[in-house]
Amino acid sequence: xxxxxxxPGGKGQAHGQRLDVAGAVTITASLMLAVYAIVNGNAAGWTxxxxxxxxxxxxALLAAFxxxxxxxxxxxVPLPLLRLRNLAISNVVGVLWAASMFAWFFLSALYMQLVxxxxxxxVGLAFLPSNLIMAxxxxxxxxxxxxxxxxxxxxxxxxLLAAVGLAxxxxxxxxxxxxxxxxxxxxxxxxxxxxxxxxxxxxxxxxVKPEDSGLASGVVNTAFMMGGxxxxxxxxxxxDARTDHLRQAGASVQQALNAGYQLAFWxxxxxxxxxxxxxxxxxxxxxxxxxxxxxxxxAV
Length: 300
Prior knowledge:
Blueprint: H1 2-6, H2 21-39, H3 41-44, H4 49-69, H5 85-115, H6 120-149, H7 151-170, H8 178-205, H9 213-248, H10 253-282, H11 296-299
Helix pairs in contact: 2-4, 2-9, 5-7, 5-8, 5-9, 5-10, 6-7, 6-8, 7-8, 7-10, 9-10
């Protein structure tokens, strides 16, 4: 109701165009089949007919999606946009970062519940510091940091802080304590995630026309969600395989679970580190206007 009352009306640029239903169905089905195959790969066997069939069907649907997008009048994802350097790199960074962040949310909660013995309320309170930090960053701190240090440095350092936070979780022992082994990673991940999203979207939209900025932002967010879904499925499967191997070798349940989570956190930290390198060194965003820049009109 607030949106209807406060946001301006008017028709969008795509008003009257047909929705790309075929593209939406094929990419969604491809992602669903891929995630299902990866999540159940350890149980069914990676060379089983089920796993190979599902992954093959996911690949075929992805190829169909790309074919549809290159031929429909109003594609869900205009493929020429992906040729833009900064947008393409931002998509890769978004996929890697999303895999790391989704793993943090999911696996750290499991670590606290199944290894440390926290209840649901304690797990929720453990996430509170990072959530408050991210909220504070979204209220203006992230924008100030971008204006002060630029897009690349803010994005690179934010993702690097997230990588360090994930590495701290990877070092957390079976008998971990909140203040020593959980809180430091939560704080670093809160700061890193809080300051990195804004420059990532700015970099993605820097190469596109103003009328396409919303579309570019949507493409990056779509890549973020796809990377999170696939990345979490892969990392959870890695953790599960490591846990099963150690259980068969005679390790206790908690030791095996923690070792599996540690492996997944190390891979997550590596993904975030690669994203930091791409964001800090490979991106070439357009220079941001400075609020303190002198007015040339006055000089004339």
